[in-house]
Amino acid sequence: MKDIATAGRTKQILDKHGFKFKKSLGQNFLVDLNVIREVLDKAYISDKTGVIEVGPGIGSLTEQLAKRAQKVVAFEIDQRLIPVLDDTLSPYSNVKVINEDILKADIEAVIQTEFDGCEEVIVVANLPYYITTPILMHFLERNLSISRYYVMMQKEVGERISARPNSKAYGSLSIAIDYFTEAKVIRNVPKGVFMPPPNVDSIIVEMTARVRPKVAVDDEGVFFALTRGAFAQRRKTILNNYSMLFEEGKENKGRIEAMLKQAGVDPKRRGESLAIEDFARIYESLKSYPE
Ligand code: SAM
């Protein structure tokens, strides 16, 4: 039987099950084996690897993962796809499909119960683009035992995720990802490898989880609020953005200025020029600054 990730077999499967795509669920299925193989080669998947997949669709990527990995657990929100996956993945006994919204899933429990004997657990996914950031944060904020992520996403989001300071794409998302992982773009992906083709270009990003976050902060909520606040209006200085972020900031501009100076950050700089270490110093300075 032909692989699922081919245009011919995909059409056959869709016809057989009378399946109609739901745009609102970001359903664009991969029909190109070369792209999948290239990513899986980079991901060093062995028979000791456990894989979590988000959104298996009709199983295009899942099938290739099942051929290489020890075990694959795939979360699919669309109930209509469950009988399809039962059918297409029936030759693979090492796949478990869970019919659940990934944003509601207890991933930690799944890691503990499903990957016995695996040397590592990684995430591989062609993500539903409408919730790329919430999904990544759902994984990263939980301090899970996941060592690496290989994820297809909208090109513009992938560029923001992997951006460095002083670039147009750099912002609070780049910093949040840098805090938890080391991110790098693997390749751009043309629209033609999907059925149906999406409206946007795609990119595959590799994220290697850090053993511990890049900077040490004891309140991540406050730290990320500081990084987001610095980019509230990109063209404004950090001082002006923080004057809006802090309660009574307008009247207390002098105090914010002093706090930034104490952190060694020129108040006239813009958020886009500040690295994660600068924000860590601002965070420390804010903590130690007298009320
Ligand atoms: N992996 C398949 C492939 O590459 O052909 C399908 C990828 S498609 C871009 C995204 C998939 O994610 C769809 O099957 C969609 O139903 C599923 N999905 C959307 N939102 C989801 C959610 N919140 N939780 C789990 N799966 C979701």
TrEMBL record:
Question: Source species, please?
Answer: Salinicoccus siamensis
Q: Where are the transmembrane segments?
A: none
Entry-linked InterPro entries: KsgA/Erm, rRNA_Ade_diMease-like_C, rRNA_Ade_Mease_Trfase_CS, rRNA_Ade_methylase_Trfase_N, rRNA_adenine_dimethylase, SAM-dependent_MTases_sf
This protein's record includes keyword Transcription: no
Query: Could you tell me what this protein is called?
Result: Ribosomal RNA small subunit methyltransferase A
* SUPFAM superfamilies in the cross-refs: S-adenosyl-L-methionine-dependent methyltransferases
User: Which superkingdom, per the lineage?
Assistant: Bacteria
Which reaction equation describes what this protein catalyses?
adenosine(2085) in 23S rRNA + 2 S-adenosyl-L-methionine = N(6)-dimethyladenosine(2085) in 23S rRNA + 2 S-adenosyl-L-homocysteine + 2 H(+); adenosine(1518)/adenosine(1519) in 16S rRNA + 4 S-adenosyl-L-methionine = N(6)-dimethyladenosine(1518)/N(6)-dimethyladenosine(1519) in 16S rRNA + 4 S-adenosyl-L-homocysteine + 4 H(+)
The record ties this protein, via CDD domains, to: AdoMet_MTases
Task: Identify the NCBIfam families for this entry.
Answer: ksgA
Tell where it localizes: Cytoplasm
What EC number is given for this enzyme? 2.1.1.182
Q: Which family does it belong to?
A: Belongs to the class I-like SAM-binding methyltransferase superfamily. rRNA adenine N(6)-methyltransferase family. RsmA subfamily.
Q: Which positions bind S-adenosyl-L-methionine?
A: 28, 30, 55, 76, 101, 126
Q: List UniProt keywords, sorted A-Z.
A: Cytoplasm, Methyltransferase, RNA-binding, rRNA processing, S-adenosyl-L-methionine, Transferase
Query: What PANTHER family does the record tag this protein with?
Result: DIMETHYLADENOSINE TRANSFERASE, DIMETHYLADENOSINE TRANSFERASE-RELATED
MF-aspect GO terms: 16S rRNA (adenine(1518)-N(6)/adenine(1519)-N(6))-dimethyltransferase activity
Ribosomal RNA adenine methylase transferase N-terminal domain location is: 35-211
Function (record text): Specifically dimethylates two adjacent adenosines (A1518 and A1519) in the loop of a conserved hairpin near the 3'-end of 16S rRNA in the 30S particle. May play a critical role in biogenesis of 30S subunits. This protein produces a dimethylation of the adenine residue at position 2085 in 23S rRNA, resulting in reduced affinity between ribosomes and macrolide-lincosamide-streptogramin B antibiotics.
